[in-house]
Amino acid sequence: xxxxxxxxxxxxxxxxxxxxxxxxxxxxxxxxxxxxxxxxxxxxxxxxxxxxxxxxxxxxxxxxxxxxxxxxxxxxxxxxxxxxxxxxxxxxxxxxxxxxxxxxxxxxxxxxxxxxxxxxxxxxxxxxxxxxxxxxxxxxxxxxxxxxxxxxxxxxxxxxxxxxxxxxxxxxxxxxxxxxxxxxxxxxxxxxxxxxxxxxxxxxxxxxxxxxxxxxxxxxxxxxxxxxxxxxxxxxxxxxxxxxxxxxxxxxxxxxxxxxxxxxxxxxxxxxxxxxxxxxxxxxxxxxxxxxxxxxxxxxxxxxxxxxxxxxxxxxxxxxxxxxxxxxxxxxxxxxxxxxxxxxxxxxxxxxxxxxxxxxxxxxxxxxxxxxxxxxxxxxxxxxxxxxxxxxxxxxxxxxxxxxxxxxxxxxxxxxxxxxxxxxxxxxxxxxxxxxxxxxxxxxxxxxxxxxxxxxxxxxxxxxxxxxxxxxxxxxxxxxxxxxxxxxxxxxxxxxxxxxxxxxxxxxxxxxxxxxxxxxxxxxxxxxxxxxxxxxxxxxxxxxxxxxxxxxxxxxxxxxxxxxxxxxxxxxxxxxxxxxxxxxxxxxxxxxxxxxxxxxxxxxxxxxxxxxxxxxxxxxxxxxxxxxxxxxxxxxxxxxxxxxxxxxxxxxxxxxxxxxxxxxxxxxxxxxxxxxxxxxxxxxxxxxxxxxxxxxxxxxxxxxxxxxxxxxxxxxxxxxxxx
Length: 723
Known about the structure:
- Helices cover 29% and strands 18% of the residues.
- The chain is an alpha/beta fold.
């Protein structure tokens, strides 16, 4: 039952005040902000009145810390007739000021506790700085590396994405939002299927069956909500031909009625007004009508609600009860956060100084960056012996641009550059550096300087990748190779004949042509965050052992995209991977398989899998079975291994994926040590959506796979028999 106090407050509000609660504005609109009155560009098109601002419900993107948040809130409460506090919301995606690796990298750690800790630390810093809500986690399933926002997801698998969704929500929100002032409310996004735009182009059309939507794309959102996530953000894209922000079936039918979500639903930036160019609303009034009917509570950064909802109520097109519902949900979130009792909840300048970029937070960032990096190739050159002379070359050799997109409060100046991380371990006498080229251009002079720098080196490290503006929102690319200037540099350096290590800083899986054959070792560092230089130095010089595993496949070429491990078979499947046959499903000029599969990642040690067995060959709903395997560290270094369980349904009512991840365990083994790893397999794990959208399993044959990645596995057949 809704809090009676909030119901009474609602009854005191005028219709204008209610509608203003549904409006979210950026800080320049508010008295007390550091950029007060700086309303330019797109902001200037919002003709909001002073009265509307005084009654508005939430602030977007306050970046001035605790001092600014307190100033805005106090000024607002002086002006707000009923003393209703503002909600402060911001994009705290992979860190507040202590920046962690981008979420795609965190996914590659397969470390759910580490992911939770990263969100916990981000929440502590953000809450002390006056933030109440973060627009995270993004749990969109992604299969197309051309799309820039793959860096913000944890990958291509619905099960793994769901597990990370839960971890991030736990980390951000904790167990008690009201009393834990170091927590923030989480907002899962983007609902729904934003990660499947046609052509990998941001904001583009999404078109899929409801069965595919439910099977692959919805589970991670549902997992976040099951974990108690307080908010949902609508997606920019269409779902079944209707933009999500005006999609009544999706939002009221599925989210509200079927899933029973009663939290706050917010549009993405400008998405309500975008119903007009989408072609489902003639004007702003119709856009407001469709969004409120769909159940969107907060309109972000357009004024369709404030300009038109009152008129729509007065002419009978909108029932005021819809507005009351939305207002009550917003007031309820403010109440859950304790804002009525403590409007400046959590904001504390002294605590902010103590927490932000603290040594403990930086150390956690460093540890997660180590675990998130993936060793893609190693011909024995890694780890580097510390007495070797090193040449560090490339545009990322001495760059602070290693935080990645969605780190808008992070400082590139305070990020540890790769040069500084290595120098701290080997000293300046054994390390020389040269840029070699810029990100997308270069000169002969730069290359010559790099070659001269490398002349005396025993080993060359190439620090290559994408500028952070080349991925993230609207950072879509059709050519996902390294820029030509960097490939030219790599080719020239290769001619020196010295051992060559490539370290890659990027936000998406790349087409590695031009560096795969040239480098003796390749370490995928992603955008590793504030402590990136130290973390990568730990790995290169053997003070840490790589343990990351890819959660998004690396294509052989962009022409294969989308390419992902859990795909369907065809009626004419290709035979041997390197066979060239006619009239089967294959390319004439490329393998079908990705260069590097989901779950792939090397270590400085090696692991052997043996004695895989099932406890029984027959499973039933009342009798689970177990799969066990012996894993041995057969190398000379201690290391961590992610043991992965996959299952295939051999014959379903509809076509089933060739493999589906159903479990994983991360184990640490000393050299020579072995461990038995066991997974339980239950009937529930074999369920899927049938043609009538019923969710159930079928009796019949299955195959369990266990191994180090989705390609290199041991297979074990079993059957499901219904009780």
